[in-house]
């Protein structure tokens, strides 16, 4: 019997574990998931949480609601992976042997390196606790300058900062604070969104709503005392409230095991999902350095090739199935509008519908249900 | 051609904008001052993005080498 171990139980890890448990016979393989957390969070909800209270039961589910009973779940943390001995040292003191390993550790929010989120005027919305602090700040906000900026690239869900800005602008109008507030959106590129055609629409939306855009602003540091954000390019921008997307990096187990690049992301073959220079090892989702967006959707579409290749290898064949980079991305442009983009390695993002109420309804009302009922359980 | 040693090279071929630009910024953050970096890109948008950013950020675009199906951008980190 083969031991197939998945390290990390976010969306990518859970859905891969569920799919493998479904595809493989129990007598042939034991599917083991290593994850200390007992919940799964629907993270696309984070962009809205700063604006209103949402019951946690709407976007957080216990692990046993999303993980198949066929998967052996180890509620502990993987500390170090030895790819030569094919062992994993666990926080509970055990050492686990693997025949195949799937790295799905996700991206870590490196809030410590910013050393600013303890400040009452500096916020983000990439972790649950941070959204609560942000919600409190926005509730008490009386006007001034709000600056939105990523710290580094890549970050999870490329449109999220722009989405947040759109929703923020609407929120301020609803509270009669718009004319007392300057919104500045700072971005690492020369346009406000990665894809040029969508960027034009985003810029048009910014212009219509009076949102100021600062190009080529790559965050360097923040001067908390003087409330200034400073860029790699040497610019200094004043703020009253700063929404700073935290840097993302690889998790400790990846770095400690020597499996990451300089930022701790795993170097994997973008077609086969096999980890470069390591046998019997695959990687998926936000923990990789693949040239695709860091999102649940990308992990979902990549999972098919990973599973087929892993099963081919188990059967003693070459892992030849290729992931073509296909993924989709919802971009929320208001409380009630959104658009859908599709991408692949072969073509740049294409948009399907802009400001489409139907898509918004699909995203807001239905997609969460699809996520918890089908996607994470491995039914799609 | 100037002699230089490439400290970091990233192959961003097949990746569309902003992938290659992001890779360059990532390399700049990782590199030491004075190091040369190489970015391989097959994306046409890189031809405008990289020179514009390098100028704004006050680094040096040493050269762009046009190869068969991609370009190689050599950038020197100046500060």
Question: What topology emerges from the helices and strands here?
Answer:
The complex is a heterodimer of chains A (380) and B (79).
Chain A: E1 2-7, H1 11-23, E2 29-34, E3 39-41, H2 46-49, E4 60-62, H3 63-66, E5 72-74, E6 78-82, E7 87-90, E8 95-97, E9 100-103, E10 108-109, H4 111-114, E11 122-123, H5 128-140, E12 144-150, H6 160-174, E13 181-186, H7 196-209, E14 212-214, E15 219-223, E16 228-231, E17 236-238, E18 241-245, E19 248-249, H8 252-256, E20 281-283, H9 296-314, E21 327-332, E22 338-343, E23 350-352, H10 357-375
Parallel strand pairs in A: 1-2, 1-9, 2-5, 9-20, 11-18, 12-13, 12-18, 13-14
Antiparallel strand pairs in A: 3-4, 6-7, 7-8, 10-19, 15-16, 16-17, 21-22, 22-23
Chain B: E1 6-11, H1 19-30, E2 36-41, H2 46-56, E3 60-66, E4 71-76
CATH architecture of chain B: 2-Layer Sandwich
Number of strands of chain B: 4
Radius of gyration of chain A in whole Å, from Cα?
21 Å
Termini gap of chain B? 23 Å
Instruction: Enter the CATH topology name of the largest domain in chain A.
Output: FAD/NAD(P)-binding domain
Question: What is the fold named in CATH at topology level of chain B?
Answer: Translation Initiation Factor IF3
Number of domains of chain B: 1
Number of helices of chain A: 10
Q: Which oligomerization state do the chains in this entry correspond to?
A: heterodimer
Main sheet: strands, sense, barrel of chain B? 4 strands, mixed
């Amino acid at each position: 019997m083969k031991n197939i171990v998945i390290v990390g139980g976010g969306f990518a890890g859970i859905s891969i574990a569920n799919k493998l448990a479904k595809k493989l016979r129990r007598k042939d393989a034991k599917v083991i998931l290593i994850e200390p957390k007992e919940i799964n969070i629907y993270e696309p909800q984070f962009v809205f949480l700063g604006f209103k209270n949402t019951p946690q039961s709407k976007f957080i589910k216990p692990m046993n609601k999303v993980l198949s009973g066929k998967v052996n779940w180890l509620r502990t943390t993987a500390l170090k992976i030895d790819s030569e001995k094919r062992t994993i040292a666990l926080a509970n003191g055990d050492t686990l042997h693997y025949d195949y390993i799937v790295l799905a550790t996700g991206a870590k929010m490196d809030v410590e390196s910013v050393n600013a989120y303890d400040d009452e005027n500096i916020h983000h919305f990439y972790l649950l606790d941070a959204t609560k602090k942000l919600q409190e700040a926005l509730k008490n906000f009386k006007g001034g300058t709000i600056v939105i900026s990523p710290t580094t690239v890549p970050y999870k869900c490329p449109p999220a900062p722009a989405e947040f800005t759109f929703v923020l602008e609407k929120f301020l109008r609803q509270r009669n604070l718009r004319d007392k507030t300057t919104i500045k959106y700072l971005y690492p590129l020369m346009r406000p969104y990665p894809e040029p055609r969508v960027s034009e629409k985003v810029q048009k939306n910014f212009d219509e709503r009076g949102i100021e855009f600062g190009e080529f602003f790559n965050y360097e540091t923040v001067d908390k005392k003087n409330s200034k954000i400073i860029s790699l390019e040497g610019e200094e921008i004043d703020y009253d409230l700063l929404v700073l997307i935290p840097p993302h990096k690889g998790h400790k187990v990846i770095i400690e095991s020597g499996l990451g690049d300089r930022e701790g992301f795993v170097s994997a073959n973008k077609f086969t999902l096999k980890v470069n220079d390591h046998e019997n090892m695959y990687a998926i989702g936000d923990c990789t350095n693949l040239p695709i967006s860091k999102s649940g959707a990308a992990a979902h579409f990549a999972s098919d090739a990973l599973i087929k290749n892993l099963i081919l290898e188990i059967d003693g064949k070459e892992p030849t199935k290729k992931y073509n980079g296909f993924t989709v991305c919802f971009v929320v442009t208001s409380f009630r509008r959104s658009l859908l983009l599709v991408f692949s390695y072969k073509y740049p993002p294409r948009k399907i519908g802009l400001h489409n109420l139907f898509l918004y309804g699909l995203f807001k009302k239905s997609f969460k249900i699809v996520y918890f009922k089908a996607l994470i359980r491995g039914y799609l | 051609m100037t002699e230089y040693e490439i400290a970091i090279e990233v192959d961003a071929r097949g990746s569309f904008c902003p992938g290659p630009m992001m890779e360059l910024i990532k390399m700049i953050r990782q590199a030491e001052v004075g190091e040369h970096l190489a970015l391989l890109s097959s994306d046409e948008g890189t031809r405008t993005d990289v020179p514009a950013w390098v100028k704004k950020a006050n680094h040096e675009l040493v050269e762009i080498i046009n190869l068969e199906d991609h370009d190689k951008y050599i950038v020197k980190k100046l500060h």
